[in-house]
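Minutes, project check-in
Item: structure for the 235-residue chain
Input as provided by the requester:
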Amino acid sequence: MHDSEVISVLVVEDCQDLATNIADYLESRGYLVDTAMDGVTGLHLAVTQTHDVIVLDLMLPGIDGLTLCRRLRRDAKLTVPVLMLTARATLDDKAAGFGEGADDYLVKPFALRELDLRLRALTRRARAGESRTLLKVADLSFDLDTFSVSRAGQMLSLPALPLKILELLMSRAPSVVSRRDIEQHVWGDSPPDSDALRVHMHTLRSVIDPSGQRPLVHTLRGIGYQMRDPDAPAA
């Protein structure tokens, strides 16, 4: 039985046959799979696209797996789970991988079923932690720990009050939030004049939904506002 949520995985493996076998098997299990045959391509895909988990071979051309993992963690600040593949089975080799930020280790040769189980476990743990600290609507993310907002990997800057409005809208998404609820959330029992919310919503929209991006903030006239991915299927 497949998990109800689709898992997106990046497989960075320079052995064509193994990469193909992994991709074919995981796709048959309902995953969305991207593949890279070298470390440079793997690094590019990891930092420019969103994945739930990464399968990373240790020995890669261009950039080896340890260096790639280190750059993902220290330079790109990515927290996506990484499962490292290697033919090296010593404790020192595993310690090196974990030291660079790997979350799990699988020694070649391995059963594809075990890879599937480990990837699902890593994804479940990551999503359980993420659900408490990271709000997501489509390609928009709001980290509640750092109060950082990004869309499609691009960091965004918002003033304090629009940021507070965004937190409310994203936490309730895709539900409609009334103007009254937003004003209560931002100003308590003493909201300013009716134009104040409109001004802050304009600021929020100008940052979140710039020209050329599909709009995520929607107005229901006379009712309130809604954060919704227009490409998402109706509930």
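Outcome recorded: The CA atoms of residues 179 and 222 lie 8 Å apart.
No further action items on this chain.
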